[in-house]
Structure formats: structure tokens, C-alpha cells
Write a structure and sequence with these properties.
This is Stage II sporulation protein D. One of its GO terms (biological process) is sporulation resulting in formation of a cellular spore. Keywords: Membrane, Transmembrane, Transmembrane helix. The relative contact order is 0.13. By secondary structure, the chain is of the alpha+beta class. The chain is built from eleven helices and 13 strands. Strands 4-3-13 form a three-stranded antiparallel sheet. Strands 6-11-10 form a three-stranded antiparallel sheet. A three-stranded antiparallel sheet has the order 7-8-9. α2 (68-79) crosses α5, α3 (86-104) crosses α5 (134-146) and α3 (86-104) packs antiparallel against α10 (287-295). It is 45% helix and 16% strand. The chain folds into two domains: 56-194 and 282-315, no CATH class; 201-277, no CATH class. Mean pLDDT is 86; it is low at 1-8 and 10-52.
């Protein structure tokens, strides 16, 4: 009987000791489990983040989507002369990346490789266009794009519509003048690129028959001598009036295939001569202006913040 009681006491003591041990070790067990769960969660979040950042762009007419940065290389190669300053090429890369992500909703939609959107050169086209300069230019453009990898332009936390053009007339055009939509980051700013461009001013001649055919009119040279032109605050043509005929500057540019909306019309002998200044719609960053700023010591970020007012340059936000 005594042995039984002693054995029973030992069992009770062992049970109590075991219970206390469990109470002592449980927190460590749960802590280990928590760490394992956190590690798994962090791993999954990291994988999701990486996947979210694997952005591709579908170029209309191409069979397969293109990696975002490869697409930007193709755009910079097509849109800006490769002999421009590296900082200008970097600014173009940031603008092109921003434009395509905004236009395609981060790659959800295709984009046309045209001047209406962004021109794109694939590797074969670059080899053809650059010829024996291919190796040097390819390296230069790639370095510009890679050094700005993932950088985009934001205004109030949203991607901007990063419009750009070849050459200004001394002032960039505001979005309000161009389209009627007033965007705070697309305001008119000074741009001295015309001082650096050999082909800043260009003449284009028409016979009276060509003029009437293109504009669907029946005007005479004498009537055109009395042309009236109204300009906006950046010096670009707002309206052209000849007799009872009236066109907007943008319509006239399209109908006559002019380089810009900053033009003057003169009758010289039997010809109508239209002289344009600058090249492009004039909104946003001027490419020749970017090159001029870079030659004068400006960085890519300084160029961007000059042409796109009150914006921020940030890395792509992957959600």
C-alpha cells in the first residue's frame, strides 16, 4: 500500500513538472512558428513584388510583348538622335517610360509604334539606321536607359502624360493652348534649343493650284497677300484667315504638312512660301532643348523638372 501511494505521488509530481515545462516551452514554440510564418509571408510578398515589377509592353504589330526597359531602349533610339548628350538621352528615357506606362495602363493595352504615340525601333531597325555606328550608339542608349531604370514622372502621385517634341520656337506650348485641357505640369516654359538646331527654320513652297487643292479652296495669289494670322501667347498660330476662309493653326499644319504651328505665309512671285520655326507640337519636353540644357551642365532630372513643372521623379510603384 505504501509503495502504491509513493508511486502515485511520483506520478503527480511528474505531471505537475510536465505541465510547468509545457507552460515554459510553449511561448518559444509559438515564437518559432510565428517566425516561420513571417518568413513564408515575406517570401510570398517578395515573389509577388517581383512578379508585379515584371512589366512588358505589347507593341502593335509585334508577336510577343517586350520587356519594359527593352521597349524604352527602342523608343529612345527612334525618338532622339543618339549623338545627343547622355543626360538628354536619360531625360528622354524617363519621359518615354512614363508615357508608355500611362498610355497602356502599365502594359495592359497595346501601343502603336507611330509618331502619334511613340516611335519604336527594334534591334534590326537600329542596326539598319545606325549602320557602322551601331555598336557605339547601342551602348550609349542602353547605358542611358539602364541608369534610369524604373524612373517615372509623377504629379500628385499619378503618372503624367509626358508629351515631348523635337524642337521648340523659344517657348514650349501649353496643353491648354494645344488641346484646351489645362494640365499644371504642361505649361509654357523657355526653351533655347533653336540656338543649337541647324534646321530650326524651314521653308516650304506651294503653287496656287497646290494650295487650293490641299485646302479645298479657290483662292487667288492676291487674296493670299492679305492673309491674317492670329497668334497665341507662345507665338504659335491660333487662326489663319483669308477672305471668308478660316483655319486653326493645327488644321493648317495638318493640311499643309508643316513642321510646326509657328509659321508665316508669304507670296513670293508665283509661289506661296510658308516658313516654319521649330518642329513638333511644342508641348512638354523639347528634345533639342534637353540636349542644349545638358550641354550647359544640366542633369536629366533637372531637364525633366524644367519642362514638366512641379513633378517628382520616382521609381515605378509595383502594387
Amino acid at each position: 500500500m505504501k509503495k502504491f501511494k509513493k508511486k502515485k505521488q511520483l506520478i503527480v509530481v511528474a505531471s505537475i513538472f510536465g505541465f510547468i515545462s509545457l507552460l515554459f516551452f510553449f511561448p518559444f514554440l509559438f515564437k518559432q512558428m510565428d517566425h516561420k510564418t513571417e518568413a513564408t509571408s515575406e517570401k510570398e510578398e517578395g515573389e509577388n513584388f517581383a512578379n508585379a515589377c515584371e512589366l512588358t509592353i505589347q507593341v502593335s504589330g509585334s508577336d510577343e510583348p517586350i520587356d519594359l526597359e527593352e521597349y524604352v531602349i527602342g523608343v529612345v533610339s527612334a525618338e532622339m538622335p543618339a549623338n545627343f548628350h547622355p543626360e538628354a538621352l536619360k531625360a528622354q528615357a524617363i519621359a518615354a517610360r512614363t508615357y508608355v506606362l500611362k498610355n497602356t495602363e502599365y502594359g495592359k493595352k497595346a501601343i502603336e509604334p507611330t509618331v502619334a504615340k511613340q516611335v519604336f525601333y527594334d534591334s534590326n531597325t537600329r542596326k539598319e539606321v545606325w549602320a557602322e555606328s551601331f555598336d557605339d550608339y547601342e551602348k550609349k542608349v542602353r547605358q542611358a536607359v539602364e541608369s534610369t531604370k524604373g524612373e517615372v514622372i509623377n504629379y500628385n502621385g499619378e503618372l503624367i502624360t509626358a508629351m515631348f517634341h523635337s524642337m521648340s520656337n523659344g517657348m514650349t506650348e501649353s496643353s491648354k493652348n494645344y488641346s484646351g485641357t489645362d494640365l499644371p505640369y504642361l505649361q509654357s516654359v523657355a526653351s533655347t534649343d533653336f540656338q543649337y538646331a541647324d534646321n530650326y527654320e524651314v521653308e516650304k513652297s506651294f503653287t496656287i493650284n497646290e494650295w487650293n487643292q490641299l485646302l479645298n479652296t479657290n483662292l487667288t495669289l492676291n487674296q493670299l497677300k492679305n492673309v491674317r494670322i492670329k497668334r497665341n501667347n507662345t507665338g504659335r498660330v491660333e487662326t489663319v484667315i483669308v477672305g471668308k476662309n478660316e483655319w486653326s493653326g493645327r488644321d493648317m499644319r495638318t493640311l499643309l504638312d508643316l513642321r510646326s504651328t509657328d509659321f508665316r505665309i508669304e507670296v513670293k512671285g508665283e509661289k506661296i512660301v510658308v516658313t516654319t520655326e521649330g518642329y513638333g507640337h511644342g508641348v512638354g519636353m523639347s528634345q533639342y532643348g534637353a540636349d542644349a540644357m545638358a550641354e550647359n551642365g544640366a542633369t536629366a532630372h533637372e531637364i525633366i523638372q524644367h519642362y514638366y513643372k512641379n513633378t517628382n521623379i520616382e521609381k515605378i510603384s509595383c502594387k
